[in-house]
Amino acid sequence: MRPHVILNAAMTLDGKIATETGSSEISGREDLVRVHELRRESDAIMVGINTVLADDPRLTVHKIDASPEENPIRVVVDSRARTPPHSRVLNNEAPTIIAVSEMAPEGRVSVLRESADVIVTGGERVDLEVLMEELHRRGVRKLMLEGGSTLNYSMITAGLVDEVRVCIAPMIVGGEAARTLVDGEGIKDMADAVRLELIKHYTLGKDLVLEYRVKV
Ligand SMILES: NC(=O)c1ccc[n+]([C@@H]2O[C@H](COP(=O)([O-])OP(=O)(O)OC[C@H]3O[C@@H](n4cnc5c(N)ncnc54)[C@H](OP(=O)(O)O)[C@@H]3O)[C@@H](O)[C@H]2O)c1
After folding, report:
1. How far is CA 57 from CA 20, 30, 48, in A?
2. What is the pLDDT of residues 160-175, one digit of tens each?
3. Angle CA(36)–CA(6)–CA(168) in degrees, nearest 5?
4. Nearest atom, ligand 1, residue 149 CA
5. Phi and psi (nearest 5°) for 113?
6. pLDDT at 196
7. Predicted local distance difference test score (pLDDT) of residue 9
8. What's the CA-to-centroid distance between 24 and ligand 1, angstroms?
9. Is the pLDDT of residue 216 over 90?
10. Which of 30, 43, 100, 167 has its CA 20 to 30 A from that of 200?
11. Which GO terms describe its molecular function (predicted)?
């Protein structure tokens, strides 16, 4: 058993979720409200370690009215326990789980255990299937996946994503090294592409939001 997973991201028209320098303020004000409403409805929000290192996000509900109890659990996928001990995701605004692999140095893991729950799974990288099962066992039924593109790729190609919600901002930035919605190794043959079904589309201020169901 695993949670229902919604991948949510904001991207420019050319599919970038950040510039090559890591600048990633893309969503308009109205879309940020949508994102924070989705956070409030979710039991957990999950990101990859590079997102924590690049943005130092709080991953809480703070753009709309919400009580502290409405903050979802924060989950960081971080094989080598590189989450900086002073990062905002470890503050006391919400519970945090750091998922590490067996590669994580014990010293760094014990420092993280002071401010988070640590789940160890996978030999080199975090085993995402096992992590999903463990989160479900801990009561997580709805999980919001908030990137970045490397984690998005692993989750989608492992068949662990049920919905994709994308905000497309009317901006173009280019850059070969700029992260796109989904990077990773990439599927080689178009015939093997992960297929989606468009469920909803609407504008929010200047942005366009597309909501898809992932076909099984
Ligand atoms: N616009 C948006 O909506 C949005 C949202 C989120 C992020 N972003 C941007 O995305 C960028 C970061 O994206 P990113 O692709 O570089 O990194 P990421 O997806 O945030 O993190 C990827 C890292 O997670 C770790 N990981 C552990 N197990 C994994 C597994 N099984 N599969 C995949 N990753 C695993 C790996 O590092 P280890 O091997 O060291 O563990 C991997 O390099 C930032 O610039 C951020 O601003 C934008």
Report:
1. 18, 19, 11
2. 999 999 999 999 999 9
3. 65
4. 15
5. -65, -20
6. 98
7. 98
8. 13
9. no
10. 43
11. 5-amino-6-(5-phosphoribosylamino)uracil reductase activity; NADP binding
For domain 4-214, give the fold. Dihydrofolate Reductase, subunit A (3.40.430)
Q: Where residue 20 falls among pLDDT bands split at 50, 70, 90?
A: very high
Ligand 1, residue 8: give the atom nearest the CA: 3
Which of the 8 DSSP states describes residue 16?
B
Query: Which protein residue has the closest C-alpha to ligand 1 atom 24?
Result: 48
What is the number of the ligand 1 atom nearest to the C-alpha of 17? 1
pLDDT in tens, 117-157: 999 999 999 999 999 999 999 999 999 999 999 999 999 99
Instruction: Compute, in angstroms, the gap from residue 146 CA to the centroid of ligand 1.
Output: 9
Tokens of 175: 């850059």
Query: Amino acid letter at 140?
Result: V
Give the residue, by CA position, lying nearest to ligand 1 atom 21: 48
Token pair recorded at residue 145: 């996946």
C-alpha–C-alpha distance, residues 92 and 102, integer Å:
26
Residue 195: pLDDT over 90: yes
In sign, the C-alpha dihedral spanning 120, 77, 94, 162 is negative
